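Below is how a single chain appears once it has passed through the pipeline. First comes the sequence as given, then the structure the pipeline wrote out for it. We keep one example in the README because the format questions we get most often are answered faster by looking than by reading.
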Amino acid sequence: MKIDPSPTSNSFTLSTIGVVHSCYKEKFGIPKQPGLVDSATARLELLPPYNRMDTLDGLSEFSHIWIHFIFHACIKEGWKAKVRPPRLGGNKKLGVFATRATHRPNPLGLSVVRIGRIYQEDKSVFIDLHGADLLDGTPVVDIKPYLPYADNITDAKGGFAPEPTQTKPVRFSELAERQCKAHQNLHNKDITILIKQIIEQDPRPSYLSRQTDREHGIALWDLNIKWCARIDHFEILSIEPVHGSRT
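Resulting structure:
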């Protein structure tokens, strides 16, 4: 990071230290907060000159890290002084600094994620991430270890979001069940838990939250997950390769 030494400086230049490779290929479907979909996998690739194992020496002793990143898919949309948090059904506006909205004066995001393997492949250095809420291709500007004694504040107040949202059960159609099994047989990867955890969070925009039987699609890796909301549950309709995919 390059910083103007002047005490009146109001602009900074940040260096991208890494990029996230994630199962989320589009904004729609990404959980509202990290850790809600623990089955979601991603990995952080460090970029030169930070792609050195010695920059991560000691990190394996921690279970979680804070990731400082850029909301790169929202930059062109600019910022808003007041936003409609999905948690409030989109019916009430709050100041942007009272929310975790993506449309901020500076498009900086902060997520705490569980880390897995730290490793090197050829000249690339990676950190496996679990429960990340990060779009594929997200630029990362810093990482820091999570410190339970300081970061876990037991008497903190949650404002308009004091508790997790209530979820609905997720059911798979017969076709979706067959497609899940076929995908697992072909790739040795069970995607049912991941799909269930994502859909039960109800990723729909707030203005659609009361509609039922409308078909939606979410891109995960190179798959298109088609689903809809029923009155008392969510139904997975089909799981198909994205057009042109070899999966």
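The chain is about 10% helix and 30% strand.

See the next section for the split statistics.
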